[in-house]
Amino acid sequence: MKNKSVEIYFFSGTGNTYLAAEKIKETLKKGGCEVKLTPIEKADPLKVDLSKTIGIGFTVACWNTYPLARKFIKNLPKANGTEAFVFCTMGNNSFKTQAEYAKILKDKGYLPIGTKAFRMPNNFIAIQNEEHNKRKISLAYPEIERFAADILGGKAKTEKTGLFSKVSFKISCFITGMWETKLSQKMMNLRVNKDLCVKCGLCAKICPSGNIVLTDYPAFKDKCQICLRCSSYCPKKAINSFAVFGNKTYRALEEEKAKNVFG
């Protein structure tokens, strides 16, 4: 990496990608870099500072990422050799979606200097206990640190895409793009248990798409990203939907930290 001024834009549903971004920041700073972290939902892609090295991090959902994050990447301005690295966190498999996004950046004039996917705790269906999740994060950290060190030393690899990843990417773009349709929003069936809700407003504060408004109780519009942030961080588990199985949720951050990062 030639440029040691770095800005990492990340989208994190329940916190895994934030943890990865924070660990990359920590490693790069030890190597003498100036690093800033910015949530994608708070950033204007057209105002990205192309004089810096750009990091893009996102959560994998359905072998792709959320519409909000995808739009950010696709709306980034054209560049002339700006260094960029792409990373993601996943519960199972990314099918090299990080490499497909690096290719999009390359076609825009960026210089990809590394791509990587990190296996982290699952926040959907196959949610494990806290001890298992902590162990999984601890196993991911050394790999994240190596990736950051390789970026710093110019040794990181940019994964190649192939026919399978290209087809998978197109299919998963279509599937995740459907999440924003009125039918999918209706099927999401977000609802509040008024017997449990304490009207703290945390869900509205941390929602990445402004989908939640707090009137008497939280009310939902039609911009849900299905990131599960609201249901996972609700202190009373008062928010439910078709995507919350057995009332099990996962969150990588403590409540106060989530307020600072996402709020």
Features:
alpha/beta; Rossmann fold; globular; 5-stranded parallel beta sheet; Alpha-Beta Plaits; 263 residues
Map the helices and strands.
Layout: E1 5-11, H1 16-30, E2 34-39, E3 53-59, H2 67-74, E4 83-90, H3 97-107, E5 111-119, H4 130-152, H5 163-177, H6 182-188, E6 191-192, H7 202-206, E7 212-214, E8 218-220, H8 229-233, E9 239-240, H9 255-262
Parallel strand pairs: 1-2, 1-3, 3-4, 4-5
Antiparallel strand pairs: 6-9, 7-8
Helix pairs in contact: 1-4
What does this structure look like?
The protein has nine helices and nine strands. The strands form three sheets. It has a five-stranded parallel beta sheet with strand order 2-1-3-4-5, with helices on both faces. Strands 6-9 form a two-stranded antiparallel sheet. The chain is globular. The mean pLDDT is 95. It is 37% helix and 18% strand. The chain folds into two domains: 170 residues, Rossmann fold, CATH 3.40.50; 82 residues, Alpha-Beta Plaits (2-Layer Sandwich). By secondary structure, the chain is of the alpha/beta class. α1 runs parallel beside α4.
